[in-house]
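Possible race condition, two jobs.
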Amino acid sequence: MSILVKNFINILRHGAFDDRKPIGMLNAYKWSQLTKLAEHHHVLSYYATGIEKYFYDDNLNIPQSEIDTIKGILASTTRQSFSDLYKFNKLFLYNKRHEHQLADLIKKEYADEDQSYATRNMLAVIIQTINNMYTGKSYIRGILDMGVLLRNEGDRVDFVKLENWLKQTDTTRLANLQGRMLIDCFGFSDNEIPFSEVEEKRAEFLLQRDLHCHATTHLKTWEYRPGRNGFSSGVKTAFRTIGHAMSFYRYSPSETTSSITRGILKGIQEIEE
C-alpha cells in the first residue's frame, strides 16, 4: 500500500470513526492530490473532518493553502440524513428476479406496523453501494456510511430481518464483501457486522483499486457515437465497465450478468436511435 493511499485511508478512518492513526509526511503536491481524491470519491466531509486534527503537526508539512481549502470545506459542509441520501423506496437491482424480490420486501416493510428505520437504512446503503460497484462508480463513500450507521445505530438494526432481506435478493456475499472492507481496512471487529462472517481475501485489494480509480465509469456513459474508423467512441468505456463488473462475478453471478446485459442492451438501443 502506497503512503498516499495509507494516509488517505487513515484520514478517512479518523474523520468517519474518530479512530486516529499515524499518517506520513507528503509534499505539497501530494497533499493537494489527497484533497482531489476525496472530492472524486465524494468523501470530502469525512476527509476534512479527519485531516483537521493534523493541521498543525509540523512533521506532516501540510501547506497553508490546503489548510485554508479544508477550512472552507468544513465551514460549508452540511450532513444529510441517511434516509435522504439512500432512498429506501427508490432501490433497485439489475436482475429482474432480484428486483421483484426487493420491490416486494419494500412494500411489505412499509405495511409492517413494526418498521425498523435503521434496518431499512442499512439495506439501502448496501444496495446502493452494490449498484455503484457494478457501474464503475466510486463506492468507498457507501462503505464509510455503512460503518457510521453501524457505529451510531447498530443496536437498532434488526440483523435477522436484514440477513433475510439479503438472502431474498441474493446479495448476501456482496454485503459480506462490503463488511470485510470495514474490518480489513477500517478497524471494525467481526462482532460489529453480523452479516459479514466470512473472510474475504480480496476485500482490501478491491477497495484499494477503487481508490486508485480516478476516472469513474457509469453505465449511462455507454454512448455509441461514430468515431473516425466507424467505431463507437464509447466502446472502450463499455469494455472497461464490463471488466469492472466482472470483478464481482463470484459474489453474485446473476446480478453481475444482468448488470452487463442491461448495459449492452442500452448501448444497442442508442445505436438504433
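Job #2 (started ~2 s after job #1):
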Amino acid sequence: MPPQEPDTASAILQNALQNFETRFFPLCGKNVLASVSGGVDSMTMLFLLEKYRSSFKYNLHAVTVNHNIREEAVSKADADLVADWCRSKGIPCSVKTLEPGAVSRTEELRQRGTEEAARFLRYNAIESVAAEKKCSVIFLAHNRNDRLETLLQRFLQGAAGSSACGMEQARLPYFRPLFEASRQQIEAFAMHNSVPFRTDATNFDNSYFRNKIRNRLIPLLNELEPGWDTAVLSGARKRRLEADALTALAEKTVWKAESSETIFASAADFWSLPDAVKIRILYNGLAFFGTEQRVPYHILESFALTGKTSSGAGVTFYGHNDLIFISSNEVPQKTGSSEESLGFCVPVQEEGEYQLPFGTVVVSSCSEGKFTARLKQDTLGQRVSEPFMLPAVIRNAVSSDKLRFSNGRTKNIFKLFSEKKTEARFRHRIPVIQDSPDFVTTVWFRAILENI
C-alpha cells in the first residue's frame, strides 16, 4: 500500500459536510451528535468534526456506549478516553453503559448473533441521546474499508435486496462523513495529528466472521486481484439504483394493523407483481410489524411464489379473500362474512347438473371429447364456459393458479385479472375449470360477471 497523504481524510470529511448541506439542510445552528467508540476511525472523525465546527457553525455533541461485554477495565478505559478528550475541547459527551448481560439477553431474543445484538442496543442508546439533545444529525465513522467488509459479509451470507447493496452514506438522521476515506488514509491523518485512540484487541480475533473477512479474505483478494475493491463498490452503487426502484414499487402497497398480532395489506394487484417486488413488500410488512427475529428468506419466497400459508421465526404469512396477512398467530384468523369466505371445489366426472355457490351448473357435450358448462338459468346461452375435457373440477380461483393457453403459453390468473381490471372483490369468487394436474384450462368469468 503506497504512503497516504496525511490531510486526505480531512479533505474528504470537509467535502462530505459540504455535500450534506447541498443535499439536505444547512448545519449552521443545528445540534449534531458524533457516535464515538474510542477507536482510530471514530476518534479521527470526532477530531475533524471539532476542527470544522467553527466553519459550519454546528453544535457538536458526542456519545460513547459501553457494551459491558469485555473486561470492565478495558471498556471503561475506552469510554474515559472519549469523555476526557471531549472535556478538553468543551464538547458535551454522554457515556451510556449497558447493563451486564444485556447483550446476551438481546442476542437470545433476536437470534442474530452477538455483534448484531450489541449493534441493536448501541443504536438504541445513541438515538435516545440524540432525542434528548435534540440533534438533527448522527455522525457515524464507517469508512471505505467498512463498506467493503459489509458487502463481502452480506454476499457470503446470501443477502438480497437493499441488504446486498451494503451501507448508504446518508440514511437520516445518520450520516457517514468518512464514507469515501480508506482506513489507511484515516490512520495516516491520526498519526500525523497525534489523534488519541485505543485499539480493540477483539479486532484481531478471527473467531468472529467479520474479522476473518478483514484479516484473511481481504489481504488475499488484494494479492490475487488488485483493483477488486473499486469494482465491488461500483457494482454496489449500480445495485443500489435497482434496489431503490424496487423499493419505490413495493412502497405502493400499504400495510395496516388489524390487531397487535396481525397486519394486512391489499392483494388486489399483489399476485400479478414480479416475485422480487412481492418479496420486498413482505419485507416491508415485517419492518412495519416490528418482528424481533430474523425471518429466513425462503419463508417469504414460499408465500410469494405459491400463495400458500408459510410460517417460521414466529410469524405466519397467508392470504384470505383479497388481502395478505402477516401474523404472530400460529393459525391464521379468518375474517369476513360467510359469503366472502366461501371456497368451493366440485368434481365433474360426467354430463349433468352440479350445484355451486353461484347457481346450478349444467355440463354438456359440445364436440367430440369436449364439454362446456353453463348456468342453468342462462336459457339464452350467453354465459357458457370455454370447452374442457372430463374428468375436471370447477372451483374458486386461487392466487397460485396458472392458465394455459392453446399455444402453450401460461399466465398467472391474478395477473390476468389485473389486465382485465377485474374488481378485487370478485377475484376469489370467479370459477376456474381444471382438467389437468398443473394448469387451469378455463377461467369462467361470465359465471358471475355479466359484462365480460
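Residues 332-342 have pLDDT under 50 and may be disordered.
Logs attached separately.
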